[in-house]
Design a protein that fits this description.
Layout: E1 4-5, H1 7-13, H2 22-38, E2 40-43, H3 47-55, H4 64-75, E3 82-85, E4 89-90, E5 93-94, H5 111-119, E6 126-128, H6 132-136, H7 138-143, E7 148-150
Parallel strand pairs: 1-6, 2-3, 6-7
Antiparallel strand pairs: 4-5
């Protein structure tokens, strides 16, 4: 199944997250390997790709996350591995992002991932590694049909 990948997953594999445990790095590496077999969902306007390109190296080196970006850029035209959806930017967010008071504080920079997941007919899960905002908003997102796959279950997220 194709998935939406938050940038933090690839950043973790590059060693760019001080909060990620060694087990989290391994889990993210394994999950990105699986994504490369099953595929990814992106937005036609390249909001996600541009974020990847700001945080990762497109030449594929030196980290696994950089290799992931190179893979995405290589397969982006192959429908077996890459699905594209149209999302609609709207007032600093996206039309597809749920209008819900419980999501008002959700990180605006992560709303594109939610919009992409909701715009795709299969409602693919969103992969998250270390971003606690996903954890804090998981119930509200779930009520709107958004599934978040928390790759690093050992992260010390809390409700406070």
């Amino acid at each position: 199944m194709k998935v939406v990948v938050d940038t933090n997953v690839a950043v973790v594999t590059n060693g760019g997250s001080q909060q990620a445990t060694p087990a989290c790095v391994v889990a993210c590496n394994q999950r990105l390997n699986r994504v490369q077999k099953e595929g990814i969902v992106l937005d036609e306007s390249w909001h996600i790709l541009r974020e990847y390109m700001r945080n990762l190296r497109s030449d594929g080196e030196p980290g696994v996350g950089d290799e992931f970006l190179k893979w995405v850029l290589t397969i982006k035209a192959d429908p077996r591995f890459c699905a594209w959806v149209h999302i609609n930017p709207q007032n600093g967010s996206y039309a597809e992002f749920p209008s819900d008071p419980e999501l008002a504080s959700f990180d605006p920079s992560d709303r594109k991932f939610v919009a992409v997941a909701l715009a795709h007919p299969d409602r693919p899960p969103i992969l998250n590694a270390t971003d606690s905002d996903w954890w804090h908003h998981r119930d509200a997102l779930a009520r709107h049909g958004v599934t978040v796959d928390f790759i690093c279950p050992d992260m010390p997220f809390s409700e406070t």
